[in-house]
Amino acid sequence: xxxxxxxxxxxxxxxxxxxxxxxxxxxxxxxxxxxxxxxxxxxxxxxxxxxxxxxxxxxxxxxxxxxxxxxxxxxxxxxxxxxxxxxxxxxxxxxxxxxxxxxxxxxxxxxxxxxxxxxxxxxxxxxxxxxxxxxxxxxxxxxxxxxxxxxxxxxxxxxxxxxxxxxxxxxxxxxxxxxxxxxxxxxxxxxxxxxxxxxxxxxxxxxxxxxxxxxxxxxxxxxxxxxxxxxxxxxxxxxxxxxxxxxxxxxxxxxxxxxxxxxxxxxxxxxxxxxxxxxxxxxxxxxxxxxxxxxxxxxxxxxxxxxxxxxxxxxxxxxxxxxxxxxxxxxxxxxxxxxxxxxxxxxxxxxxxxxxxxxxxxxxxxxxxxxxxxxxxxxxxxxxxxxxxxxxxxxxxxxxxxxxxxxxxxxxxxxxxxxxxxxxxxxxxxxxxxxxxxxxxxxxxxxxxxxxxxxxxxxxxxxxxxxxxxxxxxxxx
Length: 477
Known about the structure:
This protein is α/β, with parallel strands linked by helices. The chain has a single domain (about 1-230, about 290-375, about 390-475), classed as Alpha-Beta Complex (Amidase signature (AS) enzymes), CATH 3.90.1300. Helix content is about 35%, strand content about 15%. The chain is built from 14 helices and 13 strands. An eleven-stranded mixed beta sheet has the order 1-3-2-6-8-7-12-13-11-9-10, with helices on both faces. The longest helix has 22 residues, at about 365-385.
């Protein structure tokens, strides 16, 4: 553990991956057979929106700057029983709202590969900590891509489990119908090991699924060949490379490509190479269509903002958290505490959600978004009637420069391949599939930046996507 603390002390001032570091690693042993547990004594980091009893849990927000967690999240209890060691709490976009890791009240997390670029959000600190060897593995949360996005941009493995497989008890809520806790690791096998420890029914979480079958050992079939596996490649994920307006099939696509919001051509090439590798391993590859994916971002941001508006109403400056000293009455306490305690992105989403839920607009926005969500889910179900997994790029481009996605719409569009998975409640994993050297005028500063490849599975079929991911990972060694 001393080596990790030494490395954190050296690198964290540059990266800002950790918000708090435990002087003495938190270790609690309840399991009497820890010698057989792969996680016993293994140091991990925890995203700072997951409660660890007696420690600060800020959600990277001023409004919770001094909040002390009164109990352990269920995932923390599970890891303690496995003998895990907790190094500290990691940085994130405030209340997990962001695609870049820049929205933290305590400063952005920087990309370990290039400190002028973002780490990805919202689990920025968790991914940066794993990628820079400041932790063996980390926990993150994924609402619209918040595990997979930073894993892709930092070069780590990020697993978003099926909604309901891992307890959300003790996770500070952002959007309750979308949030899911999962691991960020160095390898696919590590992700399977961590999932074994944290998955399972929890009566403390009303959305936790109590399956009628025993949960599998997610490491059991990792080495099983994937010959004969049916792999679907959505043509909707590969329609227009960034900058290729000439091949666009509509004015909308041409505008996106011209602005650089489409799929980067080099990312496209690496994703296609990963698909070719799957085919060389014996998988059957077919193109399919997910027509409703076009509406996923609009649907996602209406639903997520509406749930944010409801969930964040509890931060009123009275019960806990930041309270203004400038108010003269109760109403002013509410208004000023929230105005001073919340950052710009949180305020933006609260206002969007409040508007979508307001009288006269509920049917036009929120209700319609829920109907479209059902159609998106149905698209996935139709594909999974014939195919085992769906694959494609995780993110449309490499990690942007700091401030490169300052326009909110550009930042929201970064979730184009990840948010549909959350809307459908499906499991997905992002694994590294190569590197890109970004264009630069100063060749001395050229650095290779990682690209992620996403594998999406059927509900509760984490074993299958882990198997595919592991085979692909091992084929590149």
